[in-house]
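Notebook B, p. 112. Complex prediction, attempt 2.
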Amino acid sequence: MVNVNSHTAEPETGFDPLLGWGCGHVNFEPLVQSTLFKSADDGSLINDLATNYSVSSDGKTWTVNIREDVRFTDGEKLTARDVAFTFNTAIGSNSELDMSNLEKATAINNTVVKFELKEPQSSFIWRLRYVGIVPEHAYKKETYGSNPIGSGPYQFVQWNKGQQAIFKLNEDYYGKKPYFKKITMLFLDKDTAFAAVKSGDVDIAEVEISYANQTVNGYNLISLPAARAQGVSFPMQNNTGEKSLKGDPIGNNVTADIAIRKALNLGIDRKALLEGVIYGKGDVEYTGVDQREFGNPDARIRGPNLEEAKKILENAGWKDTDGDGIREKNGTKAQFKLYYSSADQTRQALSVAVSEQARELGIKVDLVGASWDEIYANQYSSAVLYAYSSIDTFNLYLQYHSKEADDTYKNPGLYNNPIVDGYLEAALRATDQDQATKYWQLAAYDGNTGFGPAGDVTWLWLVTIDYLYMADETLDMGTPQRNAGADILGNIYEWKRVNAASSTS
Amino acid sequence: MSTALATVNRGLFRGLNLRQKTLMIIGSTSLLLLAIVVSSVYLGGEPLQTNFGSKNLAPSLEHPFGTDWMGRDMFARTLEGLGLSILVGGLASTISTILTIFLGLLSSTGKTADSFVSWLVDLFLSIPHLLLIILISIGMGGGAKGVVIGVALTHWPSLTRVVRAEIKQLKTQEYIHISRNLGRSKIWIATKHILPHLVPQILLGTILMFPHAILHEASVTFLGFGLSPHEPAIGIILSESMRYLSAGYWWLAFFPGLSLLIVVLAFDLIGENLGKLMNPKNAHE
């Protein structure tokens, strides 16, 4: 038995993959259900339910073969019909899980599923990776979430809303069976979780980054990467009085100037943020996807270089003429607002540090800690500190492809570059992942332009934060996969209990 | 030396009489509060900067109140927070007092006006205080401005009630009747006869409103309404410190909490001692 403090908050809609359990806003191992693919230790995709897959030359038809020896925990066989049912139901699920590009899924026979897409989408592989397969015969949208049946490594036992969920081992699991017979998932906030660690009540718990220098007897502090990038979005357009679809203001004359964005990207000392704010638990970040295989190292810039940054500002006409320490250009002060989520201390600390560092460049950043409603209402006219952990390549498309000002958090700067749009579209149309990766990288920087700091400098990416866990020292977690931070249960198959006395670490 | 005098004049400062002592208490506490406000205004900048090299330090000579999770000096932060609190308290009390005087005098002018004022007082007192502050401050667009307006617009009812009772009593006095018979207008009577009698009540009421206003400002910011979490306000400091109690950083809560208590007590002390001086019933003591 193992007690786990969940890294995600309690799922409001229960353990239903079609309503966001395991996929959607965050992606993680759904435990109860199994998925078509899963991640190897190095982050690459390997088969789970699937045995292989192929994509048609126009990129619109995906055919996936699945195993035939899999049963749901109620004894029924899992067939291609269940897979098709799962994805067809997801189309209209109206949740965080975006399936709008899927035309329909059809079961060719018991072991072959065909997916027909409206538009070619190379990133569809990530949908296949994270959506848990539900049984057609036992699925009802209203009740499935609180009593899920699946074919995953664990079987659902009970859910005490607001407190905990209990899972027991699925004895008929087709894959490698985990060591732990029972998992109790506690839904605690991070402070309570840390208190639970101190009293020895849990085996593993996620803790705030500010506890990075804490030690608890009998526990090891482990930090797991998750490529969770923190960065400041910049409104890319000038303020022309235009309004978004919801009537929120668009544009900012200061951040629309590439000199300001470039100077900040060059002048901010990311290393100092890394060491200072997040205790070195993570890495510096330049493009938002530095750690992904589809990140482009050429899109980065060399920094920090305060002198160079100042020179850029001077050359662009930003000079401090009235001696108040803030630069001006044609009567406009180099000053803008930066919104951050007031509920998140790390974002607060990063914002404060950025604001202080920007002051040395002669740029005044006024901080506003706010709720998300307020942030979204101001994202097109002010800078916002966002966190992105896009494992799904489709997020890149959403983040940098031009769009209407529709008040979602995708592409908050309203970046609009036809060349980048072209690369992003080409990446989606690519039929094999290597080719897609090439285009994703070109979108960041093609030697001339791109969304990265070397090109149009659309963001000020700062650092990538690891997830910190306090784990009981008798818990052996094997080799966590590359992005295990947000998906700690992803390698539950490798976890086991070791004798504390015999462990040397 | 008589025994009666000896009981009064014991302890420190035995050379002073009670009046002098009272004045001294008022003077020194006012000076303390003034010092807090002035230093918080001129502090700004440097000490409030983060210093990630000195995070979560226990109190020392260099940082008397310790440092917080961003390495900011808690002494400077507490001073800033208290300064803001006192300013909010001051503004709120002043606005409340003006409202009180206006409504009090209005109630003295006639029966309809009087029942209107008492209806207004009952209305405001019937809504939970904190809720009303939060509602008003959000309605006013949040921020420091919202908090000041919220606190200011909610503290007048109890003082108005006291003033109104006082006025009711005054109106039964002979000289008011005579004045009215002599043909003086209601406004004239209100400003020339009634107002002067109300001065001590109002002055004391205002000063005793301070601690209320300060505590309410602290609770509103504690609950996360109004100011952004990076700004130094005493409520924000205290709510932030809660997160670190399990990590053992006691100084984050202890010193700011204690300082808030001292400031509130100081105002209480001033009010009490001013009362001793100004209330004719015990002024002779």
